[in-house]
Here is the input.
Amino acid sequence: MLEFDAAAKRFGSLQALDACSFTARPGRLTGFLGPNGAGKTTAMRTLFGLVELDSGAVRWRGAAIGPEQRARFGYMPEERGLYPRMRVRDQLVYLGRLCGRSTAAVNRTVDAWLERLGISSRAADRLDALSHGNQQRVQLIAALVNEPELLVLDEPFSGLDPLAMTAMSEMLAEVASAGTTVLFSSHQLDLVEDICEDVVIINAGRVMRAGDLAELRAEVPQRIVTIRYRGTAPDWPRSSSFQVVDQHEGEARLRVEQDADLPAMLAAAQRTTEVVSFSYEPPTLSELFRQAVAA
Amino acid sequence: MNGAHQTWLVAARELRERGRSRAFLGSLVLMLLAVAGAIVLPAFLDTGPGTKDVGLTGTSPAGLPAALQAQGGAVGTKIRIHRYDTQTGGEAAVRDGGLDVLVVDGRQLEWRKRADEQLKAVVTGAIQLVTVRERAEAAGMNPDDLLAVVQPLAVTNVGLGQVAGRSPDDETAAFLMTLILFFSISTYGAMVLSGVVEEKSSRTVEVLLARMPARNLLAGKIAGIGLLGLAQVAATAVVALVAASLADSFDVPAVRGTVLVWAVVWFVLGYALYATVFGALGSLASRTEDASSVTGPVTVLLVLGFMVSFAAIGSTEATWAHLVSWFPITAPLAMPNRIAMGVATWWDPVVAVSFTVATIAGLVVLGGRVYTRAMLHTGATLSLGDAWRGAPRPTRSNVPTVIETTERKEEPVVTQSTTREARTLLILIVTAMVVGGVVFALAGDFVVGVGVGAAFFALTRQALKVWGRRSDHEADTSRGRDREPLHQ
Here is the structure.
């Protein structure tokens, strides 16, 4: 288990991390969310000794993180970068050996991943001879060469086409199902909602929400009612018990309290229009995110 | 993970990647060919001038051809004799290069342009000899007795070096060694620089530093490239020696084992010193284009060191030459040539090595700190001062920052920084004058004093600029103003 314990870091006047506490559990995908400048990259860099904390601690399996632990971590930084003129396979083997693994073990891992991602035919080429998509794959393998116990990825989905995104999310799920702790940052909230069990939302260095996504959604006192209708838009009576979020083209979304009087709402709608469907759900991750960040 | 093992992996990567790059192999082969060619070619060309064509016309003494060949043989020149019936025919042959010289009536030498001094001596000597013999016979004397009397004594020429026991060849050797050391140190120092900048600009560094401490990366890079440099220097030396022994014509300057060992030691020390500085400064630049401007002052220093060491060959006894060989910045070039010249006492290299090693140790600590802090910074080129204090990083600009940026243009800040700049300049000028004065007093040469003072001023000023490129914006730095461009 990865644990941030009241981690704090200040760059001049900018409080990048502020009593930041959360955990990431093994075998699960943890989405690390927050607006630009919220401190996501700083938090991730802390794990690799690229940023030194002012106070607080980060722990892996209960122990402070040092070189020994980092040798078993994998990291894909937001700013991708590998030696452009080095051969793909040599480069990956070199990075694996830097983690202290034997050449034979690294060779096995690298070859397996090259095969798995369909780029073994390019293994002897220089990195800069590869297409952008293939370079991204190599970058991902670079984070996996030591068969990490903790995989940290900064914006792994940025710059990927829809197919590559699907492939990436399948791979992350696969890695996590093998027992690896996976922490990644992203702005693709819908995607995170689909694949992550856990999320951490931070803003201005502080953790706003953290934990199991389903539980977080259920905890929110508001619910979203979606009514699809045919014909004219419903003419809602003035009421403080609900709030119209959005209404157009045969669909109305309303934010209501958890204990709202649903039959009365449905009846009110049916008085003015023909209702096709009616749903009552906890808010989506996007709404959760907006609320958390606005607070 | 063992730090030494990581350092070795980094060094091994440098050796492997650079060792098999076509650019490196090409330049190595080219250099070896050039060295071998420079030594072997003159030996081949030398066979040409070994034969001279001498034309005779008009009346010439009967024994002249034999005398010419004898005289020529004495200095290793084969003489071919050609006879011409008319002077114009002979002159035509001289003009079109068929003859080296035309002897008219045994008393006039005609050359195409200027006289070939050696051939002139041979021909003149032969004419004198033949004439003396003829006159002796005419006077009834035994020509052989007379020749024995007038036979010139062989006078040998010896070039005296500046120091007893050293010849001008040693001075040539010392100069060549300084030249090779200078080129090796700057070439491989520049490789460290470009390697550091490559890792930073390609952002490979973040992946690497997530796996190892910055000092292992820098140390491994310097060690790997240094080994490559050592290998190239050794290969060059071996090729030079082999070519020289094959050609046999090349006068290998008195090369002593101890001098060569010292040259290697000083390559290692000089390279370590400059590579550390280049590596640390390279980390300040974010792009290859910025690298040369960041390291400009150091390159100037290195070139200056070379020029001073070169100048020191001519005046080994001067106090300034002695000081230059101790001073860590110039010692790697100046001390080995003092050793080659034989003017160094046993403790001279000891003092210079201690100073240089101490300087390297200091630079490793300072450079390591700058490198560690600057390597992960992105955006504009960092100033040395910012890197030292710890660059603000790594987040993107956010809204409060933008507001602060607009607030920053306040009059008082500008005035303050201007007065500070003027004060710094004044202090610098006074210091430069003192330095120049001291050098003048020690060296006893006014021009050298002025030169060193001016160089000191220029270099320090440049260094201060690099250090304080953003000292005006200190307020921003202390507020942690973010210099990174907006991503995404």
